[in-house]
Design goal:
The chain folds into 2 domains: 90 residues, no CATH class; 102 residues, Beta Barrel (Lipocalin). It has 1 helix and 19 strands. By secondary structure, it is mainly β. The strands form 2 sheets. A 9-stranded antiparallel sheet has the order 4-3-2-1-9-8-7-6-5, with no helix packed on it. The chain has an 8-stranded antiparallel beta barrel with strand order 10-12-13-14-15-17-18-19. The chain is elongated, with a radius of gyration of 20 Å. The two termini are 36 Å apart. Strand 1 and strand 2 form a beta hairpin.
Length: 236
């Protein structure tokens, strides 16, 4: 059981190349409802649930749905074998070849004798947060105010941005999946409405180390041990 409390009532989605339906939640310790994998050239997707293997290949023209036979151990992974569909999951970093996303697993599928390769499992954090830019989706338990622009940027060893009111900046360090910020220095402008409240919530969140997670849709989560969180989307 994770020591991190449940944070989101529903899964946030972001339009991207990765499959979105049933995306594994960002909450640490949660188990995804389904395992998903994808590949390119030709495009294909795979969903593994406790009851079925659902494969769509050749950009959706080939569809195979078979009962889940159960996973068998393989070298550094698992294998599913059916008459029409064989799936090999190898635990090791994988790039989808179409973006800078990296996944936990390399996945090989043999569908009616045709072999395709791709990636699956959870999305890994970038090698470095430096050079990445984000916008806030939620802070605490609520969505950010739409009338207040928000940003979070990582540059070298410093982070800066706005959580809806003042500009802030400060150093940060990462140890594994734990990020420690600060102290954060901010301007002292007063803002009416929700902007000031969500800013206070963000500063309180970052007062202690937070766990950093990236989900399959590219959303970044910052999770505190007391159950509070901030969810961010990439800024392109």
């Amino acid at each position: 059981m994770s020591r991190f409390a449940p944070l989101l009532a529903s899964c946030l989605t972001l339009a991207a190349c990765a499959p979105t339906n049933g995306t594994p939640p960002l909450r640490p310790g949660d188990e995804p409802a389904a395992y998903r994998a994808l590949g390119t050239e030709p495009g294909w997707t795979l969903e593994i649930t406790p009851g079925r293997l659902d494969y769509a290949g050749d950009y959706g023209e080939t569809k195979i749905a078979v009962p889940n036979p159960g996973a068998k151990p393989s070298f550094n992974g698992e294998r599913y074998v059916t008459p029409r569909l064989t799936v090999d999951i190898t635990h090791g970093e994988c790039s989808d070849g179409m973006s800078d996303r990296r996944y936990r697993d390399t996945v090989t599928v043999i569908a009616d004798g045709k072999t395709v390769k791709g990636c699956g499992g959870g999305t890994l954090l970038p090698d470095k947060l430096a050079g990445t830019n984000w916008t806030f989706v939620t802070i605490g338990n609520g969505d950010v105010a739409k009338d207040r622009p928000t940003t979070l940027s990582f540059d070298g060893k410093r982070m800066s941005g706005s959580a809806g009111c003042n500009r802030f900046s400060g150093n940060y360090t990462i140890d594994g999946t734990m990020l420690t910020a600060g102290p954060l220095v901010a301007t002292e402008m007063a803002c009416p409405g929700a902007g000031m409240e969500q800013e206070r919530a963000f500063f309180a969140l970052m007062a202690k180390p937070v766990m950093v997670r990236l989900n399959a849709n590219g959303l970044l989560g910052l999770f505190a041990e007391d159950g509070t969180a901030a969810i961010l989307a990439p800024a392109y």
